[in-house]
Amino acid sequence: MTAIPEPRPDNNALERLRVLISLGEAVEKLVRLQQVLGRQRLFVDAREQGSGYAGVIDPLLLVLNGQAETLGRNSARISSLIRGEALDEEQRIALAGIIQAVINVVLTLHELLVLLPREAPEPQVFRVLRDCFKGEWQSTSVIMTNALSSYEYRIEDVLEKLEDIGQHELTRYKGLLKGFTRAGSVLAQAFVDRSNPLAWPVLAHEYGHALDEARGISRQLVYGSEAADRSSNKEFLVKWVSEVFADFVAARVLGPASQIPFLLLEMTRPSLPRGLEEVRSHPPASLRLTLVREYLKHLDVATDEFDGVFAVYEFDYARKLVALDSAEREAKDQREEPIGTFLRSNFATIASAVDSLGLRSFGQQQLENAKELEKKLQLDLPISSLRYTKDDQILSELNSLIGSKSAPERVYEVLSNFNETPATSSEILTAGWLYKLASYEEHLKESFSAATSPTSASLSGYGDYLARTDELLLRSIELAAVHIAIVQG
Ligand SMILES: [Zn+2]
Q1: pLDDT tens, 87-128?
Q2: How far is the CA of 282 from the centre of ligand 1 (A)?
Q3: How far apart are CA 110 and CA 33, in angstroms?
Q4: Which of 138, 231, 247, 371 is the most exposed place for a label (fewest CB within 10 A)?
Q5: Burial of 392 by CB count in 10 Å (0-12 exposed, 13-18 middle, 19+ buried)?
Q6: Is position 2 within any domain?
Q7: How many Å lie between the centroid of ligand 1 and the Cα of residue 173?
Q8: CA neighbours within 13 Å on the CB side: how many for 168?
């Protein structure tokens, strides 16, 4: 039986953070979508005149603007929440409902973007994936698509959903797909995530699936020496193992920050999935987080900096669980219990399968480096490199040379400690998340300032903050690549 959380004194603080995170997500998705449509508008105007695309973009933009106005009208209420002023129960429920409604509209609109001409991903995407996977990376296509496909399904899954096409055609289509790239996989990225490196851990997870499938790892774990039977019930086990395997791969190459985009997406859902269908394709998100945290512990990576978000996610999950009626909760428990038992008992096997891939592991040192880099982001500087020796250490070594009889070359040796080492993509993305988690609230506060405007919001201010963060991270990824090229000569 799943434990239902007791009301605790710190629940008010968690509830405030939960609503703040949803608000941050609502505003972020909204302004990013406005940017995507703005870019598309230019593209259409410049190249596709008379194509009819403008007829699709303008109504979408109108709806988005309407949602921005809705948030603006509630600026006074939102501003009170951000400032930690107590809202009465009615106000609180109304506000959470408004934010959820905005998220629902924005996410639904995002699904409609598949109607538009495709954009290409940023070149830095490939730099991050190559850096994460090193020798295991094989050139793989990334296409822009809707959010549901990029977070929930892979192109292969989408094909499988085309039930009418039959097994023979399905095999043929999959074969065609494999012909696209050497790795035989196509990674999907949501339109809104195009310029947002903080969302890219999703691609590391997807590439984990590609590695798994190329070698049949999850299948082998479930079937052992037995011949695989694609119509058997064990196929569900293969799906569950493959999700946890891909989660571990992302956690191994990117550390705890790899989980944040998934958790934020889960938090934007209005309720927990109720049907059987969901459980068949994915283990419950809360179980996945528990297993990933266990895996990070196994890698000796502390998660302290991210425990706050994990706690808000768990609080949000517990709230949604309470919202189910008892029969639904019971049914959910019955569906999920065997998955939990099965995956927990296979934790060590899945972990060792991921460990044996030979991927460089994110370690405690990367986390420490990321904390240093975050300080630079706070100063609005790119974070492409790190210096390991502190100023005072270099100074004291130089001082020790004064009056000593050491050779002059020794001075140059000490001065070489000023050399900077290029940051890894995992350090850059982790620093980016640390910075975002520490700064989003302040920027929301500026956007919803009741004092200057109780009935409107400056969402473009929040958009500028996101765009600047994107720019700093994209530049950092690019500069680190240049730095490595120079060092390697
Ligand atoms: Zn997956």
Answers
A1: 788 888 899 999 999 999 998 888 887 777 777 899 999 999
A2: 8
A3: 7
A4: 231
A5: exposed
A6: no
A7: 20
A8: 0
